[in-house]
Structure formats: C-alpha cells, structure tokens
Write a structure and sequence with these properties.
By secondary structure, the chain is α/β, with parallel strands linked by helices. The protein is built from 11 helices and 15 strands. About 0% of the residues have low confidence. The structure holds threonylcarbamoyladenylate (TXA) and magnesium ion (MG).
C-alpha cells in the first residue's frame, strides 16, 4: 500500500488533510493523526471491523483496550453509560488535554475497543487537527499510539513513517507532539479514582479536583487496565538503563559493572553532563519535566537510528511532576 503523508502547516493544507482523513475514516480505514501527547492510529470507534484493523496493523494483543477520542464532553457522554459529577469536574478542569477518563462503557462501543471489558477510556485531545477531524466525522475515534506494539510511541510524522509506512493509507504531519508522552489514565469508576497510568497531568493537579487519589495498579487485573501494566512497554531497541551519578567517574564505574559490555552507548543527561569521551553520543535534554517529556521519545528514536546498543538515561527527580516520565523509563528498561 502506498502511504500518503499530508502536511498541515498552512490553512489550505490543513483543510485538505482534514478532508482526506475524514474520507478514509468514513470508509472504515485506519490513519495516523497527530495529537498533543503522541501520534495516534485512528479508526471509527463505532466500527468494529475498522478497530480490528488497528490491532492487526500494530500487532497489538487483543486484551489491550484502546482509548476513544472525542471533541466536546457531550460526545464522551455518548460513549459511556454513567457520567458522574467527578467526571464532569475533571473534564472541565483538564479537557481538552492529556487526560483519559475510564468510565462504564456504552453498548455502541464495540468489544474490540474495550478488550471485552465493561469500561471505556475517553479523552478529548487538544491538538486542533484531530479535533477538527472528529467534528467533521461526527463519530469518535479509537486511537492507540501509532507505533508497532511495544515500541516507542511516535512524537512526529517521521517516527510514524519509520514503523508504519506501507501499512496505512495516510499519515498526517501535525508537527512535533507538544506533550511527548501518553496521556494520564484515570479510572473514575471507583472511589477514590485510581491513577492507572501516570502522565503529564500529575497526581497533585488531579488531587486538586478529586480530593483523593488511589495510585498504582491494584490487585487482580483480569482485564489489562492500562498499557503501563505490561511490564515491558514503550521500549527502544537498545537496552536502556536509568542511572544516577554525580560525576563522570561515578558514571564510568557503573557502566563498567554492566555486563555484557557494549560498544555503542548513548547518554541522555539533564544535570550532570558527561564529556563525549567513551560514548557514542551524549545528548542533553532540559531539566524541566515538561520539556523533558517533550524531548524523550524523539531522543530514544534517534538513539535507535544511530544504532545504540545501550542507552543510559540520567535518573529524573522523584517529585510528582516527573512520575509519568519515571514510569515510562522504568518500563522501557524492563526485561
Ligand atoms: O496519549 C494517549 O493516550 C495516546 C494518544 C494517541 O491519545 N494514546 C495511547 O494509546 O497512548 P495506547 O493504546 O498506546 O494506550 C492506551 C492505554 C491502553 O493500553 C489501555 O490499557 C488504557 O489506555 N485504556 C484504554 N481503555 C481502557 C479501559 N477501559 N480501562 C483501563 N485502561 C484503558
Ligand atoms: Mg501505546
């Protein structure tokens, strides 16, 4: 299949890309679209066959549910059977934006979307392109991240093309994703609400609205409740380790202890930046949670492209704003 890549950086291009994406989605096709978190692989959420194609293209396990993207809270209410006051408050506070609310699922959401479960994750993304597509379609879009299962999520159109070129008819280039890691997933079917996947809307912001918050995955996960629950996820090809060091000698000592020894290691640092000597690459990303999240996946994609065998990431601080980043690094280093 030939994959068309459409730009959106001028009004006429934007309109033409919306028109093409809508045509394909109405025809039951799967297309890659930009969102503010990461790029999504989208299909009509009410069309079970189209959603099944997403699983096929990604090689995604059937037990992993997909987030439904809406434009306006009203559309979210059509995907669920209950809209508690807390969902309303959270939507008012954080939508459109990188927060997914897990709620009781409406009948018309196909099983494939929810992995057979009785809840559905809904999110109103803030990226103007996907908003306009959803409004023009008039139906919500089921969209996981636009990568092959288990790999690093794409934060630009080139990342998508690298993995999905030839497998989908359209990739829309909406620029670099501004958030950079996947949305925060919050289960509001339980009281207090449970944080299933940390993200850039962090615990402290959520608690300002919810009062209480349950953390972590909880016991008994019959249905996989969040992707983060797969221990290894979001992983680059290279082995990834997260280390802390105060100077280069400490870094070298820790690297010497890593077996087997590898030749091509890349360091991603934010505070104690080592010299280039002894490394295939050293990149610096800002010591600021928001900027770090925005840059992280692009750095991981780049290290893979450069053939890194080991990626050494300087440990992020332990504070609440960094929790989503720490979570992704932990999963990228698993296994
Ligand atoms: O930022 C994002 O959320 C991006 C963009 C494209 O919106 N999407 C994304 O999708 O990260 P994905 O499939 O890579 O991760 C979605 C995760 C699923 O793996 C799933 O575990 C969780 O959200 N999720 C979806 N529906 C759920 C449900 N009903 N209950 C619990 N978790 C759910
Ligand atoms: Mg994903």
């Amino acid at each position: 299949m030939k994959t068309e890549v459409l730009a959106t950086h001028a009004r006429a291009l934007f309109n033409a890309a919306v028109k093409r994406a809508v045509e394909l989605l109405e025809a039951g096709e799967v297309v890659a679209l930009p969102t503010e978190t990461v790029y999504g692989l989208a299909a009509n959420a009410f069309n079970a066959a189209a959603v099944a194609r997403i699983f096929e293209i990604k090689g995604r396990p059937a037990h992993n549910p997909i987030i439904v993207h809406v434009a306006e809270a009203e559309m979210a209410r059509q995907c669920v059977t209950g809209w508690p006051p807390l969902a309303e408050k959270l939507a008012k506070a954080f939508w459109p934006g990188p927060l997914t609310l897990v709620l009781p699922r409406a009948q018309k959401i196909p099983d494939a979307v929810t992995a057979g479960g009785d809840t559905v994750g809904v999110r109103w993304p803030s990226h103007p392109f996907i908003q306009e597509v959803i409004r023009a379609c008039g139906f919500p879009l089921a969209a996981p991240s636009a990568n092959l299962s288990n790999q690093v999520s794409p934060t630009n159109a080139q990342h998508v093309a690298k993995q999905l070129e030839g497998k989908i008819p359209l990739i829309v280039d909406g620029g670099q994703s501004q958030v950079g890691i996947e949305s925060t997933v919050l289960d509001v079917t339980v009281n207090p609400p449970r944080l299933l996947r940390p993200g850039m809307i962090h615990g402290r912001s959520l608690m300002a609205v919810t009062g209480k918050l349950a953390l972590g995955e909880g016991a008994g996960t019959e249905i996989l409740k969040s992707p983060g629950q797969l221990q290894k996820h979001y992983a680059p090809k290279a082995k990834l380790v997260v280390l802390k060091w105060r100077n280069e000698a400490e870094l070298s000592a820790q690297l010497a202890a890593i077996k087997p020894r590898v030749a091509r290691s890349h360091v991603i640092a934010h505070t104690h930046i080592p010299s280039q000597a002894g490394f295939a690459g050293v990149s610096v990303i800002p010591h600021d949670a928001e900027a770090f999240a925005r840059a992280l996946y692009a750095e991981l994609h780049r290290c893979d492209e450069l053939g890194a065998e080991l990626i050494v990431v300087e440990a992020p601080p332990g504070t609440s704003e960094w929790r989503g980043i720490a979570d992704r690094l932990k999963r990228a280093s698993a296994g």
